[in-house]
Each structure stands twice: as structure tokens, then as C-alpha cells.
């Protein structure tokens, strides 16, 4: 995908660049959002696999996984910005994200500990994705939110967001409930991807 995207941007073919960017983002959402959504719902059970002392880190996992939902939903936006020749913008974004993380860590870690550090890192991740997203939209006129991306996100939320939440409310968040919910969600997801393959535009 990257060489084709670089070629499209270098020749000014915005239509092809936009299509490639949206297709890549759709695949990224399709593959990663189920994991992030399941981790958010079953953070205590997931962390419990490493020992009882790790379960207290549930809020940290939820904060970071939520930030990654946004980051993956933006696709490889920083790479798109660099391929378009805006490397200085990328450097500015990274510097701003780092400065924000350090400032938030200094303010929050002494009071909130690991959760404060997670908030600082999540804020940096958001800045490092949302800022270039706005920039590529303004400078290049492209964005990652094509029909495939939207369909993949909706399907992932339905199967790995809503269904596990309902399951957790009924059966709890223990290991057995986690495995059952994961199996049901994965089955529904597979059927959904197959039936929506045309709308997703990813499985041609």
C-alpha cells in the first residue's frame, strides 16, 4: 500500500491517494478494533491472566485502549503527512504530543499514579493522530473515513462492543464469560464481514 500511496501523492492523484488511504484504514479498523473493544470490556479478566495484582490496572488499560481506537481509526495519517512532503509538520506534531505528555505526567502522576501516566500517554497519542488528520484534510483534501472504514467500525462496535457489554452485564467478566463472549462475538463478526463484504469494499 505504501509505495502506491507515495506514487499517488507524488503525482498529485488525490483520488487514488484518498482511496488507498481509506482502504488501508478500513483494514486497520477491521483487524484492530475487535481487540481494543474486548480489552476495554474485559480489562480485569484479561489482566488477571498475569496475576491477581495486575487487575488493579484495569483503568489504565481502558484509557490506553480507548486512545488506540481513535489512533487506528485515523489510519497511517502521520505517514501520509510525511509522504506528502510535510515532514516539518510531522515533527511539530510529535514535539507537541511529547510536551503535552510530559506536562500531564508531571501534573497527574503524583496524584493518580499509573492512571495519570496513562492519561498523559493517551493525550499524546490523540494529538499525534488528530493534528495530522486535520492537516492532511486541509492540505491534501483526503481523509480515512470511507464507506469501508465506517462499515468496519460499525460492525466491530456491534460485535465486540455491544455484545460483550451485554454479556458482561448478564454473566460477569470472569475468564469463562470472556471466552464465551469472545467466541460469540467472533462468530458474529465473521458472518458480518462476509455478508457486508461488498459494502466494506475490502474483500474483493
Automatic annotation (TrEMBL):
Keywords: Cell membrane, Membrane, Transmembrane, Transmembrane helix. The chain crosses the membrane at residues 20-44, 56-77, 89-109, 115-136, 148-170, 176-194. It is found in: Cell membrane. It is a multi-pass membrane protein. InterPro entries: Poly_Biosynth_Transport. Its main location: membrane. GO terms for cellular component: plasma membrane. PANTHER family: O-ANTIGEN TRANSPORTER-RELATED (PTHR30250:SF11), PST FAMILY PREDICTED COLANIC ACID TRANSPORTER (PTHR30250). This is Uncharacterized protein.
